[in-house]
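Lecture 7 notes: from sequence to structure.
We start with the chain below.
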Amino acid sequence: MKSMLMHSFVLDALETTGADTFSHFEVLIDEHRKLTDQYLLDGDISQNNKATAFVPSRLKQLVPQVGTFYTRLPLRKAFEAYNQKYGITKRRHICISFNEIRHILNLAQIIAMTDSYKGERLGLLPPLAPNGSSVGGGLNYEKKEGETDDQAVKAWTSMTATPRREPDESDNSPHNGDNDIPKERSRAMCDRSESIAIEEAFSLLPDRTTLPGPKLICFDGDQTLYSDGANFESNPRLAKYLFLLLKHGVTIAVVTAAGYEYQAAKYELRLSGLLAYFKEKGLEGDDLERFYIFGGECNYLLRLGADYKLHAVKENGPGGWMNSTKHMPEAPGNWSESEVQSVLDMAEASFQAAMEDQNMRARIIRKKRSVGLIPKADEKMTREALDEAVLRIQSELDNSKINLPFCAFNGGRDAWVDVGNKRVGVQVLQSYLGVPPEESLHIGDQFLNTGNDFAARSVCPCVWITSPEETSYILKSILRLAGVPLMAILNPVGYEDKKQVNGTKDQKGIEKKVDFDEMERRTSRLAMDVFTGEMIPLQAASRDA
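Predicted structure tokens for the same chain:
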């Protein structure tokens, strides 16, 4: 894709041909999806090997490693929206970059998952011609009544992180989600606190029980919800978007490599600021219970309870998550302990050899379902050395007789081998919660072949981000494209400087606030080794540092 766009840029024709290039890829994807569905119906491939089966599409021939597309991708629409916002076709010296293509693909995916672009779920994919190509180019499907994708994209294009403005009577843009809101009411909402504005904004939405978008959103932890090796402490903006999604019926699951078995307090420490935000905002009932964390990739499932603490989800017996997902061949409930130990033994031996061969200043730790190669105190390991260690064990396990799913990945500062992977984790959640792949979304930062988000590509749509800030922007975009009013999304003036958010009122009517500085001060009396999960008093941690 970047190569084709480069040709247009060199010929100074990106402004006239850029959108057509994205349309071409959109046609190829539509054709690939249609052929895949035909092969499934004919029995030539099964649902289990859908992601790896060979489908003789033009896209597969161009990109042999291409995966599964669970939704259409409105690439042209996303490119035009992105270009309208950032003017990339006006540039004469800098070609479109890999990161910009990544952002356009991300935008296309979230447009596809909102109600504004669900034509393909209603069987509106164009039929294939006898030669396998899409009739009509695959782009001119009939739009159903009520689809407002152009309005939604315009809303995204105008979305900025600026303070709220009062709507003008002549302003016809959809920035409030409803142009018929009385001006006096909108002005009053601008003058009130953020918490009141959010509650009133909910009342402006059409009558619906769930968000018109993904029903299940899975997140990586490090570098997606919080910085690598850190905790979710003082990010009220991201906390607010997650809160809004839960309030609108979306299930949130943190699918993380952090494996502390069922020691809930350690996961709670990693998510301390987020859980505090939920409590102060008064999240309750079913909204709370739609928040999950899957530790060790797919090994330890916990759910948030009414006490704002995480609780282990029953594994076995009626309704147990392991028991109810045994119909999946790779599910943890089908693993034998002997094979689990074989994977861990191979990983430990391979890491030991890699550490000695490359003179790595590291140590090896072994947990119940994982083995880690972690740096010694005050030491760092190079990306090349970690990649070498990961690719070695990947090759060894691939060529072994072990049939268990695994994940060998470079975590940035360390390398790990987990029994299981995020493909299994997301599939278990989809099966246990009854959410189909096309209504699931995984957001993460490691989609290279040495990353642990890579495996999720085969079971659901994915969004590739590089930081918690990008995650915030993606969630903001999902909310905006789904029609959540701008008043519920934008931050009030001075919000970032105060580092606190308005919350609920106590019994005396005094408004409580989440003071992230104070919370960080209190929780920092105990530090946790994120590698081992060991709790360390702050003074001892300071001496070690």
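Points to note: Confidence is low (pLDDT under 50) at residues 119-148, 161-209, 491-504, 540-545. The CA atoms of residues 238 and 473 lie 9 Å apart.
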